[in-house]
């Protein structure tokens, strides 16, 4: 199998509690934990970053589809949150994703856009089977 990215996403943490520096192909950003769990809230926490990935992917996928169909929908807005619960001894995560549009959107268009939202690559990744191979070097 070939990696999706030419260069790995890199992460580094020093001695400052929870503050991580993440490097990607064109830059860097900080990840941190909120103050209520001991961080300094200097960057998005890992759960927020995950939801931001889903938000960006969903919005981009919808925009590509809307543009291809030449529909007049000037703006797409999304809000996400999640909760976790243990059901029958197994952790279940539920993500709530609400999408709104500006302009006139018909019921038929909304029905199609709901299907397209679920076709964004991050939606597919989160709904599919994911294997994490970890090694200590």
Search tags:
single chain, 137 residues, alpha+beta, GMP Synthetase, Chain A, domain 3, three-stranded antiparallel β-sheet, two-stranded antiparallel ribbon, 3 helices, 31% helix
Question: Could you provide a short overview of the structure?
Answer:
The protein is of the alpha+beta class. The protein is 31% helix and 28% strand.
Structural write-up:
With 137 residues, this protein is an alpha+beta fold. It has 2 domains: 1-43; 46-127, K homology (KH) domain (GMP Synthetase, Chain A, domain 3), CATH 3.30.300. The chain has 3 helices and 5 strands, in the order βββαββαα. The chain has a 3-stranded antiparallel beta sheet, with no helix packed on it. It has a two-stranded antiparallel ribbon with strand order 4-5. A hairpin with a 2-residue loop joins β4 (76-87) and β5. The longest helix is centred in the middle third of the chain and has 24 residues, at 46-69. The radius of gyration is 18 Å and the shape is globular. The protein starts with 9 loop residues before the first strand and ends in a 10-residue tail after the last helix. 7% of the residues are buried.
Structural topology:
Layout: E1 10-13, E2 20-24, E3 27-31, H1 46-69, E4 76-87, E5 90-101, H2 107-117, H3 121-127
Antiparallel strand pairs: 1-2, 2-3, 4-5
Residue share in helix? 25-40%
Q: What is the terminal-to-terminal distance?
A: 21 Å
Order of helices and strands: EEEHEEHH
Overall average residue pLDDT: 95
The radius of gyration is: 18 Å
* Cross-sheet strand order for the largest sheet: 1-2-3
Name the quaternary structure: single chain
CATH architecture label name of the largest domain: 2-Layer Sandwich
- The CATH homologous superfamily of the largest domain is called K homology (KH) domain
DSSP helical segment count: 3
The top level CATH class name of the largest domain: Alpha Beta
Pfam family, one: OsmC
Organism: Flavobacterium aquariorum
InterPro entries: KH_dom-like_a/b (IPR015946), OsmC/Ohr_fam (IPR003718), OsmC/Ohrsf (IPR036102)
Protein name: OsmC family peroxiredoxin
